[in-house]
Amino acid sequence: xxxxxxxxxxPAKVNLTLLVTGKRPDGYHLLDSLVAFAGIGDTVTARPxxxxxxxxxxxxxASLPEGENIxxxxxxxxxxxxxxxxxxxxxxxxxxxxxxxxxxxxxxxxATLIALSRLWQIDLPPERMRTLALSIxxxxxxxxxxxxxxxxxxGEVLTPAPALPPxxxxxxxxxxxxxxxxxxxxxxxxxxxxxPLTHAPADAHALAQALAARxxxxxxxxxxxxxxxxxxxxxxxxxxxxxxxxxxxxGATCFGLFADEAAARVAAQGLSAHQxxxxxxxxxxxx
Length: 287
Ligand code: C5P
Known about the structure:
The protein is of the alpha+beta class.
């Protein structure tokens, strides 16, 4: 067997805005979200093998839940869809906190679909890949897109977003998982009207202004379930040169937006000093 391997990065997904615009009869919520990616994430490496094996390492590997890993689910569904044997040796290096609102599992699943498509030399039509991704999780299609995207429906309606300017993020997570279904259930406010970003912001300040005019509608229910989210937002806002502080997805990860790397690194140090138990990660916003 040849010793080639395929490595695909699984960057953190960040909901820069998240409006809940309605609810489907099956209970899933309709969203209008500006999704972008950060230059930090997990890594998926796939090598040829006779059967499917998964090895997980990395700083957050120990917090993965029991049961079938989403990477294995993605591999199984892709092999079934393509009619190829389910055979690969996969290494998942986990750096992102689990159940954190930054799509760790969804990013891993999308990276697995990409890595195994290359390893197995299969080329499913993009529409088929998106359907497969959606069957794994609502955020997997946008992670497959991997670039700034307007996400609507429950995650299946994707439109390229205007280009984002150079900017840095500081991601902050209390290392307490927050369950996505419980946050959606705790949401009681009226539905929002869709409000997409229509122009490319000229710089990080203009981006912050555009984002400030929109919201993450899941913030209040997340704070009601986990008051630490409110504390993190206050601590991020208090950092010098912070342009905007917001929660991503259904939480608990929050992020600060900064104009440049130096400002982000100073804020990250300040946040780590404020609360040494928090996971704090400065990373560029991928435009
Ligand atoms: O598909 P995913 O596993 O990411 O979603 C987890 C849960 O979050 C769903 O079972 C549902 O309760 C809730 N959810 C929702 N509306 C969405 C996405 C997720 O209600 N658009």
